[in-house]
Prior knowledge:
Helix content is 65%, strand content 0%. By secondary structure, the protein is an all-alpha fold. The protein folds into two domains: 1-123; 125-195, no CATH class. Helix 2 crosses helix 6 (114-123) and helix 5 (92-104) crosses helix 6. The protein is globular and about 50 Å long.
Amino acid sequence: MTNYTDNDSLTNELWTEIEKNYTSKKRHYHTLQHLDNLLKQLTEVKDEIQNWNAILFTLYYHDIIYNSLKSDNEEKSAGLAEKRLKQISVSIETIELCITQILATKSHLKSTDSDTNYFTDADLSVLGQNWETYSLYYKNVRKEYSIYPDLVYNPGRKKVLKHFLSMNRIYKTDFFFCKFETQAKRNLTNELNLL
């Protein structure tokens, strides 16, 4: 943010909003730790990223609005990102890229923009972590959806897992494909079998 404004009180206000949302008591997976993992994954491919500032804004705003009862979290997050980035005079091109990248996390489909593919792959990197990390992830996702009984949650979760398993490639970039694809398919299969 300091690349765009020298208004310290505004940058503090915007960061506090991000921090508050990602540390909400209702969140168990979509937390600051998730953002930290994304930053770690994306830093490994920083040289491949065309617009690093857009990626960082996408990272911090992609899950800023998250309500497990709603299906428009990405749209609301993109809307808030647009509003906040305009406040600090970010270029329209960077804002539009950020919005596109946030909305891409809804479907995780392959994009014509390589930065978007790196971002959505990093967003799914948890799927390809070791089993212990993956287990913690799916248990935390379950906590975020604790309002739903197993009777409702399990069929929905199975559908998500089968969707990923049916894809030719979960990861669109060669970097993340080589790093995580095999383990991700193993983890998703294991979780599906546990349901």
